Amino acid sequence: MNDFPHLLVRASEVMRTLLHVAMLLQVEPKQVYRWMAGVERPSDERLDELKERLLAVVQSSKVLPMSGSTSSRRWRDTAAARG
User: Fold this and answer.
1) How confident is the model at residue 81 (pLDDT cuts 50, 70, 90)?
2) What is the 3-state secondary structure (H, E, C) of the chain?
């Protein structure tokens, strides 16, 4: 069970947001926060299923580097359009 919060963190890094993790697990985002903090834990019946979903995402994906802020991309696009 100790690896479940770490798996949630890793999945949120891969997927970029906890909202996407919550959608993957079909739970509310606040539930993911509770599990990460160790305040609550999923039922034993669901734990294996949730771990399988998270592992599938973590093992099949790489963390993509951020390509810059939205405002800097907008500025570059505007400057390029001006010539």
Assistant:
1) low
2) CCHHHHHHHHHHHHHCCHHHHHHHHCCCHHHHHHHHHCCCCCCHHHHHHHHHHHHHHHHHCCCCCCCCCHHHHHHHHHHHHHC
Contact in structure between 62 and 14 (CB atoms under 8 Å): yes
Nearest 5°: phi and psi at 73? -65, -40
Is the pTM value of this prediction over 0.85? Answer: no
Section 2-21 average pLDDT: 92
Please list, residue by residue across 71-82, b when 16 or more beta carbons sit within 10 angstroms of its beta carbon and e when fewer do: eeeeeeeeeeee
CB atoms within 10 A of CB 37: 10
d(CA 6, CA 45): 19
Whole-number Å distance between alpha carbons of 6 and 17 = 15
